[in-house]
């Protein structure tokens, strides 16, 4: 049975029949009208009325769409309440308050919830919710996060409506809106009688924006859930475009380069027993990094901080340091810190190997060492991920929202979903609230995306079980 869809609601079959009857009645009264002329008028009327496209949903899907439309106002209110709680990563009490706000809503639809304390990795902790239905189908892992980049001393603290379509607020897209989209999709599944047969784990981390240490403890709840699950679905905002989703994300890891030279009077620089010093050696290394690696697709490597001179100090906690040196002295020490982003573990290891080789081929009388921090792993594009996107895109098309294409991984940063890489058969991310300006005081959400994204997520999970 065909249905007419608009962006925010499904038109019932009766409405379609009524419209067709009206159009046929018009034609019968204008007998001289040619078929082509009539068709042109119909097309004009359809465009004028902005009739949406036809699509086919089953009764369960129709019920879920109607539930999301009917409950959207309440979902918006819950989103506003969540946004107005400061939950900067280091505001542990605020992060937990957001978790406590959401827990009863998961409990109400049959989940068992718990708070996993983060003291062992110096963060607030994580919200974990589980439902273990006995129906046949994949085990799903749904991923979100409670924290934002806006700490209590930031002036950006409250939700504010811009107009009927737009709203601003700290974390509204990254990613409190995504948490509500997840919850709305689950509520719709519950209201239509589908949720009780599903096996779903929800992990809402409290340290996505600034991970706790060690990562083995910080991400343990997420990794444990991924090892249990078959499919991972992330509700980050992706690139902010509802026509795209992430089936790959580049990982993010850090590197530290330490260089030593032979100190001497500057008049003796380049002498065989003196060499060029630490700063020239550092320049050689960084230039060769760029010359040897910049051509590789989806690989980036950025030196973010450099210190050099006769004496240097470095504070990793504050990402700062000092350097002392004179123009007439060959530099003895240099230090560079940077990040490295790759789309697969193979690409990451290949880049690291090249960097190590460059670092080891020193100028005379200099030495250098480079260390790598594993950080966030890459989520490599796989056929399983692509198939999951096809299911999601099909649901979007049937809802009248258009197809969904993969995001270029160069446009996607690291995210918690990356920790599921290699542990699940399929993974997708970027199903959250569309908008722009993330991580800035201009963070803005497109509020009409709250119901539309909720519908797409609900249909995706339902169709994975059909």
Low-confidence region ranges? 1-54
Oligomer: single chain
What is the radius of gyration computed over CA atoms, rounded to a whole number of angstroms? 27 Å
Structural class: alpha+beta
Strand content: 15-25%
Main sheet summary: 6 strands, mixed
Helicity level, as a percent range?
A: 25-40%
What would the average pLDDT be, to the nearest integer? Answer: 90
Question: Which key features would you list for this structure?
Answer:
disordered N terminus; alpha+beta; four-stranded antiparallel sheet; six-stranded mixed sheet; 466 residues
Fold and architecture overview:
The protein has 466 residues and is of the alpha+beta class. 37% of the residues lie in helices and 22% in strands. The chain contains eleven helices and 21 strands. The protein has helices at 13-29, 35-49, 59-83, 92-107, 172-191, 215-218, 220-228, 278-293, 345-360, 383-398, 449-465, and strands at 3-5, 10-11, 54-55, 112-117, 125-132, 139-145, 160-161, 166-168, 199-205, 231-234, 244-245, 252-260, 300-309, 311-315, 320-324, 333-341, 367-376, 405-406, 426-428, 435-436, 444-446. The strands form six sheets. The protein has a six-stranded mixed beta sheet, with helices on both faces. Helix 3 crosses helix 11, helix 5 (172-191) packs across helix 11 (449-465) and helix 8 packs antiparallel against helix 9. The radius of gyration is 27 Å and the shape is elongated. The model is unreliable at 1-54 (pLDDT under 50).
TL;DR?
This protein has 466 residues and is of the alpha+beta class. The protein is 37% helix and 22% strand.
């Amino acid at each position: 049975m065909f249905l007419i869809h608009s962006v925010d609601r499904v038109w019932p079959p009766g409405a379609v029949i009524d419209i067709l009857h009206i159009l046929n009645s018009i034609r019968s009264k204008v007998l001289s009208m040619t078929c082509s002329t009539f068709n042109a008028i119909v097309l004009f009327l359809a465009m004028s009325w902005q009739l949406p496209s036809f699509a086919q949903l089953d009764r369960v899907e129709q019920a879920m769409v109607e539930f999301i439309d009917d409950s959207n106002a309440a979902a918006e209110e819950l989103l506003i309440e969540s946004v107005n709680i400061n939950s900067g990563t280091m505001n542990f009490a605020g992060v937990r308050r957001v978790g406590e706000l959401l827990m009863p809503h998961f409990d109400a639809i049959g989940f068992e919830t718990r708070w996993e304390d983060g003291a062992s990795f110096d963060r607030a902790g994580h919200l974990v919710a589980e439902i273990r239905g006995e129906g046949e189908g994949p085990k799903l892992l749904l991923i979100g996060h409670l924290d934002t980049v806006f700490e209590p001393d930031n002036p950006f603290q409250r939700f504010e409506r811009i107009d009927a379509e737009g709203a601003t607020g700290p974390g509204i897209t990254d990613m409190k809106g995504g948490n509500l989209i997840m919850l709305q999709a689950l509520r719709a599944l519950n209201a239509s009688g589908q949720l009780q047969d599903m096996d779903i784990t929800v992990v809402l981390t409290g340290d996505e924006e600034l991970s706790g240490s060690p990562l083995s403890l910080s991400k343990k709840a997420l990794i444990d859930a991924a090892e249990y699950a078959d499919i991972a679905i992330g509700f980050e905002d992706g690139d902010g475009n509802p026509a795209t989703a992430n089936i790959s994300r580049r990982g993010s890891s850090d590197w530290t380069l330490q260089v030593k030279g032979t100190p001497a009077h500057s008049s003796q620089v380049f002498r065989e027993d003196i060499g060029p010093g630490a700063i020239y050696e550092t320049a050689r290394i960084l230039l060769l990094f760029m010359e040897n690696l910049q051509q590789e697709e989806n690989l980036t490597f950025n030196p973010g901080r450099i210190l050099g001179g006769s004496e240097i100090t470095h504070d990793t906690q504050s990402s700062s340091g000092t350097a002392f040196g004179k123009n007439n002295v060959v530099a003895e020490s240099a230090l560079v810190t940077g990040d490295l982003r790759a789309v697969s573990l193979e690409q990451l290891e290949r880049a690291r190997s090249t960097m190590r080789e460059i670092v080891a081929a020193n100028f005379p009388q200099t030495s250098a060492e480079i260390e790598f921090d594993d950080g966030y792993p890459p989520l490599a594009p796989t056929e399983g991920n692509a198939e999951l996107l096809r299911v999601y895109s099909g649901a979007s098309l049937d809802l009248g929202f258009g197809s969904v294409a993969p995001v270029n991984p160069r446009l996607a940063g690291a995210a918690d979903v990356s920790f599921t890489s290699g542990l699940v058969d399929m993974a997708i991310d970027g199903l959250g609230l569309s908008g722009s300006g993330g991580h800035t005081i201009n963070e803005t959400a497109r509020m009409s995306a709250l119901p539309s994204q909720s519908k797409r997520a609900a249909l995706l999970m339902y169709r994975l079980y059909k």
